[in-house]
Amino acid sequence: MSKTITLKSLPSSGQLYPKIVSAMLPVIGKPATISADAKIPDTVFRIENLRVDPAQLKDYCRATGMQFGTQVPLTYLFVLQFPLVMSVLAASDFPMGAIGSVHVENKIERFREIGVDEPLTISTHAENLREHRKGMFVDLISEFHVGRELVARQTCTFLKQQRTSLSGGERGPAPKDVTPPPPDRVVRVDLGLIRQYAAASGDRNPIHMADLTAKAFGFNAAIAHGMWSAAAVLANVEAQLPAAVDYSVRFGKPILLPATLNMYTTKVDGGSGDFSGFDLSILNRRKGYPHLTATLRPIK
Fold it and tell me: Fewer CB atoms < 10 Å away: N or C end of the chain?
């Protein structure tokens, strides 16, 4: 039987990070590897009647290029549920730690447009722990309600890198570096912009905040948030989205800061004249490998 923890307010990063850091400590922290039969706690974190902060939303739109208006931008749903996701990962009985977990995929299903003035109830839980050749995957599911109406669902997939029973399987040939085609849009991103995004989104993971702290976790420099890139490329077509839409994103190689990025938008031809969707991507300007690939499709 599941346990529901209803929060009176969303926890800040200052409240969560002491728990997240302590999970890394020897002896008292979480295990270095996760067994394939590890149990995922059946716990739901919930917040009721959450109101969008217009000032925070405006800062978010300024950092990403999304539209600031009367409707909640599609990717801002990730920001609203992010403290609940971190609460799940920070829980002492959850086998995977927040720091060291890699956000590899994200899926947002919006069933209708959501007004900025509508109070939201958000519930978040984990499920589907599974092996992959790179490690262990787990899904964090958030459901958004206005009253009793389900208005959106989000799935964040995280990877804990380690050896698994699938690690020894055959791998395909490594993709070759190629010069990418001319982009539809070129975007410049630097540490200053990413710090603005971190402040607006509440995601102040050390890998995003400074070169020194990013290097402590194995990166050559600070990296952009995956969900910043998901929002920045979506801004190109945001005005054309239907009310009910599925935005599915897969993150590739991290964006080392500063960077100049090639963004691409391909309209899907459904033949009916109605909205059929877009395929989106962000490619490395010199070597052509993907930082992000994504699909936008209508929900019928």
Answer: N
